[in-house]
Amino acid sequence: MTDLPPHDGRAPLSRRAARAAATGSESSAERPASARTPAAGTLDALFTGEVDTHDIGRVPTRHDRDRRKSRIAKWVVLIVILAIVGGIGAGAAWVWSTYETQIRSVMGWEEPKDFQPGEATGEVLVTIVTGDNGSTISQTLFDQGVTKTASAFYDYLIASVQDPPFQPGVYALQERMTSEAALALLLDPASKRQEAAQLREGLTVEQSLPILAEGTGVPVEDFQAAVADPSAYGVSAASLEGWLFPATYQFDPGTSAAQIIQTLVNRTVESLDRAGVPADQRERILTIASIIEREARLDEDFYKVSRVIENRLADGMLLQMDSTAQYGAGELDGGSVSTSEGAQFQDNDWNTYVREGLPIGPIANPGDNAIDAAMKPADGPWLYFVTWNMDTGETIFSETFEQHEAGIAQWHAWCDANDNRGC
């Protein structure tokens, strides 16, 4: 223990205490209260955590000032460090964005080939055409922003050992999809975008065009322009009447009127070829088939009506088909099987009441059954027929005019009993 000299009989003071006492004494003696340094225990100091409530109003000492300088220095150092770290982060981000490929190559890091789940957005219409396979579809998906890389989709098919039967069409997908999600939509019929139109047998070109326009969204004016030149579709006739095959069609969005008409004409050619119609006989067979389509009601009667036409032509008789007179006079929409007196005697190229032989061309668009019947008429001696029951389509075929008159009488009786419905 170190011996300290006595100090007025009181306990010895530490050097720090003695120095503080001396400093405080000098301050009190030399400066008036009004000229004292502002108190260290101000509200600002309180809220910054430099003092507590016990320090309010206390005069700052030299030690207080040193502590304050020390804190300021620490904050400056911290700010400098943060600035350096922030600069390094920004620089690193720039380097990564600029040299990502090179960095991955050097480090051996493989770049993700697919987008992550949950990134998909928007809508993309992807077209698959006949002959497309996994490789070509993979490129298409990349080109349209669906997948991240050109090989992502194909690599997924290989890795998952899949060889799905892709169907041609237009499909609604999204941008930034995973390959798995893209495949699911390509195989989902609900994602296939198509426009549909249904043409029934026996309609004329004029009746068909508004139906096509409504079903496809293509303006009817476009269809009217498209059918104006039959030669554009390989048809040598003056009109496309008879060449717009009746069926239900589905078209991809964006299909033009000309492309749609070509599809219908092609389908007619298929039916003609299937029935064995020679190319130079197509217009004649379509003309006969169109009459059959408008006159016969039951499938089994198609072949009998075909025979009546051939028998009357062979005997040099006028065909006298009401459907031809109605077409020539523009009365096909009348809803009646009977021909008005004006239409029956109107002189035009379609009216077989006044024109010998077949009309100048088809009067409607026939289907498969009518085309087949035109090529393969049933065997029989019939020269006449009359559909006597408008509800069931039952028809009487006759060899003589007297038998035909009896059939007509039966028809009149049915009409009288049924308020002339359809008569």
Mean pLDDT reading: 83
Strand content: 5-15%
How many structurally independent domains?
Answer: 3
**What kind of sheet is the major sheet?**
3 strands, antiparallel
- State the end-to-end distance: 140 Å
Name the overall outline: elongated
What class, by secondary structure content? Answer: mainly alpha
Count of DSSP-assigned helices: 15
Organism: Microbacterium radiodurans
Main location: membrane
GO cellular component, one term: plasma membrane
InterPro entries: MLTG-like (IPR003770)
Could you characterize what this model shows?
By secondary structure, the chain is mainly α. The chain folds into three domains: 36-110, no CATH class; 121-193, Endolytic murein transglycosylase (Dna Ligase, domain 1, 2-Layer Sandwich), CATH 3.30.1490; 198-380, no CATH class. The protein has helices spanning 15-30, 43-47, 62-107, 134-143, 152-159, 179-186, 205-216, 220-226, 257-274, 282-295, 299-314, 322-329, 341-344, 368-375, 401-417, and strands at residues 121-128, 169-175, 192-193, 195-198, 248-251, 384-387, 395-398. A hairpin with a 7-residue loop joins strand 6 and strand 7 (395-398). The longest helix has 46 residues, at 62-107. It is elongated, with a radius of gyration of 49 Å. It starts with 14 loop residues before the first helix and ends in a 6-residue tail after the last helix. Residues 1-49 have low confidence and may be disordered. Pfam families: YceG. Residues 11-40 have a biased composition (Low complexity). This is Endolytic murein transglycosylase. One of its GO terms (biological process) is peptidoglycan biosynthetic process.
